[in-house]
Queue: 4 jobs
Job 1
Amino acid sequence: MVQPCLCLKQETRLRITFLSGFLTLIFLFNLGYAQPMYLPPSEYGKAQVVIPEAQIIRRENVFGQAPAFEPILDFPVGSLYWQIAQAVGRLDMLIEQGDKRFSIFCTATLIAKDMAITSYHCLPGYDPSMKVVGAQLRMDYLSGRLNGEPFEVGLEPLEQNQDLDYTILKVYGDPGLKYGILPLKVREPVEGEKLFMIHHPRGNPKQLTRGNCELYPAFWR
């Protein structure tokens, strides 16, 4: 029986995030690998967006083995990755900076029927000149033919921590009742645990990224 969870260390810092290895990479891998992609405001709210050629994410091997990105749609219904992926969605944001507007994408995960967790660097972000004026969580975006379902997201965080780089947001329409949730759980990490990430790289349909990644003791001690 699969019992995925997101595990957070209480008190002052994140000990490790765990969702059968998933959210560890959501928080950490995104910080080091993902670069902001700014699109015209007209792309906000669309499932399939027009990405400039220079910003299209390639399928190069980022871990030393191919493929770097595996579509969730390719996994059997009911498999481990498929089950965990149900609660993961694409966070679409409309950004205002002075007299300019643009759209960006991140990934967020449902942790309650009406709450999702994402990275602080996504929302509200580290640049005070950038203001999020619109946000949607698009669930079940799997391919060009399966555009998923958008849910409005509250712009005021329910909880946030800049040092730990996380934000918890209100999601309207109770999407967790339909797509499930990944509950929070506190526990110690286990050395050698395999890690993987389910995400929407640069707004693309939901993907799995994995490789020879595992927990290294010096990371959390």
Job 2
Amino acid sequence: MTWRWPGLTRLNSSLIPVIVLSVLITALGGALTVTHPARHAIELDKLFAGSLEPPAPPVEAASVATPVQPRPPARKQASLPLTSRGVPPGQPRVTPPTAEPPTTPVVPAPAPAPAPAPQPLKRLAGRHIAVDPGHGGNSGARGPAGTQEDHNVLAIGLKLRDLLVAEGAKVTMTRTTNITPRSPSRPSAGQLEARMLSANASGAQLFISLHNNWSSYSSWHGTATYYQADRGTQELATILQREIIKTTGAKDLGLFTANFHVLRNAAMPAALVEISFISNAQEEQVLLTDSYRSKAAIGLCNGIRAYFGK
């Protein structure tokens, strides 16, 4: 029987066992190699030449070890130097959030009570002063602009009263409104007599009469104080004049003696203060201001306190 192999010459049937044996040896790992027929590379020349090497002994399957591929070494991550707090330099330190402790609601403390206003010293406690705002009922001197003396001195007299009361003194006013004083006990008495009746009956320890000065010389200005020469009241006049000049800054015209009705008939030490000239245009306007009136009242209050040695 004749076999045909693609690409080879005709083979004798007696060679078939040899070929089969060669195939088996190849399957078992032998040296004989049979490639794809298309490549025409069957190594049979040695076989045909009779120089075929004896087949190698078979290798037991148990002795064939599957080569183990070594695992590549793990890549070691470069370590960074750590700071004292365990944080690489140049990287922000992350602080893990901590639980907030429970907070107790803060109840605001009650506001402190306001401090009481300082009370003035009662340096004139037990003293009684009669204050006489001169004229009244639109009488008295009139300034170039038409202002009234009785209006000015009433405003100053009321301020003086309040200061004296704050100091603890008792005050008798010969008038508190713009009226001409009258005496209920003697209706026929004139306004000057009515003033003295009221002051003397009150038991006052001091009598202060308030006026504005007037002159036909419009340039005259300043403040002066009058007293009765034979009544021993010069000291009172001196103190009042000194203190009112201090607070008002007016020109100091000094002291004058006079025989005025209110000085002559007062049952207590008395003085009459001429506060500025209403006939002077500049002083007329100053007399209208509340600040100047307050300064005049403060000066007189200081003088009365100094007179009593307080």
Job 3
Amino acid sequence: MTMQKRAANRVFALVFGLFGGVAALAGLLALGRGAASASWPRAEGTILRAEAVSGVGTRSSVHYRVRYSYTVGHQAFASDRLTFVFDRATFQLPRYAVGQQVPVYYDPAAPSAAVLVKGIQPYPVVITLFGVLFIAIGWVASRFPSLATRPQGSR
């Protein structure tokens, strides 16, 4: 294997490993916050704004933007976070109407951190698994560079 091919394999392995590491870390952080939110206390909240926004460009997905207010003790808060995965949900959630009363789950240590959907959601699990897969691909490419090269006669 030439030095140029070895360098290309190292870059490939590094890029996949770094991308996988970032994705796995992001997924694990979201899983941790989701797991912590499962035991958060509940406050009554009121929907201030609720709108469905179509995807931009060629994307046909719908994003739901929701803003709500809630009170903890005697202090009022407002948030637009639905879950710990995305600020705007890209999946079907129950429709919220302005003025609707909703349960809000807040962090007792930092009441300004709140969500409408508590607990672990499926998306952080998928993100973490993809991250681990990319790390594995990077590791295999770095340990077995001959797997990433084509035989001489196949060009």
Job 4
Amino acid sequence: MWQEVRARPADFDVQFLTLLNQIQDTFSNDSPKSENFFIQLLVPGEFCILCAVSTPPESFEMRPTAIGIGAQKCASSWAHSVLNAHPDVGVSDPKEVDFFSYHFDHGYQWYERHFNCLDGYSVRCETSPSYLYDPRAPERALAYDKNLKVVAILRDPIARAYSNHLHEVIKGHIEPQSFETGMLNNPAYIEQGQYHRHLKRWIDTFGPKQVLVLIAEDIGKDPERCAACLYDFIGVDSGFSSAVARERRNVSDLARSQTLRHVLRSGGNLLRRAGLEEQLVQLKSTGAVAGMLNANSVDIRKQIPPMLESTRQHLTEFFAPDLSDLPELLGRTSLPWPTWRAATAGQTRTPIAV
């Protein structure tokens, strides 16, 4: 049973006490579930909303303890694989459940079925890049479990946008076309790169101690250190080391044969489900398998023209306000991104590797 009170701050105390009395009347002391209700306070804008829930979901043991929130094309697949490699961590299958964004209407029981096979793991995770920029997701996640650990990974926003475009072409969502044409078709390329705007919602909702922010460029330089940081944050042995951390994930390429790629990936997924991620990394580096992977790969950048310099300049100017506020939110003095340096120095022609 949900009850809700809307009130301005001036009269909130009165309505709070009124609703609290209603709750106490509803859940008498002899009710077997009277101790299971909880109260959550949300403050969107000038109004306060108080919600009381009679009985939270009962399947606590199979709940996730951590979620990855993106951003898309920012090493989320790397994080998922690194987590899956750790013996104390269980990850959802599929990787992206998208519950707090697209599938919230399916309910908690549907969500928790994705973790039913993870009994025995001290930490359970899922990674859904849609969570970062969905404005509903933070409060939904908090209502579900206020103790969730939240992991975000960010990347130079212009590099991310271009990679997003390549991803859409590779997936067959659009025909091969210029980035500029794709950007006009898909505003999400730019929307997802407004990191301060989106991440602030999560930090304001959960608090800075429950949100870890990694930088994709740092992962590229020192993946094992970043993996240790991730392990430490979610509460497992940070001394665990795996070759998975050093493996490149989701390279932007097309397959000469989709059938061969499907067969190879299906085999890889079977090994992952069996907990053999480390062995899979070794197998992919052997001569025969590595040869098949390379022979079947076509660099998508050969079919997509590079970004126009005028587009780069326009995007740098667009992202500048968001980027100027981001370091303070992250507790940093700078960011390792050409776009950040160009935006903060007023130099819009700094080249960006994408």
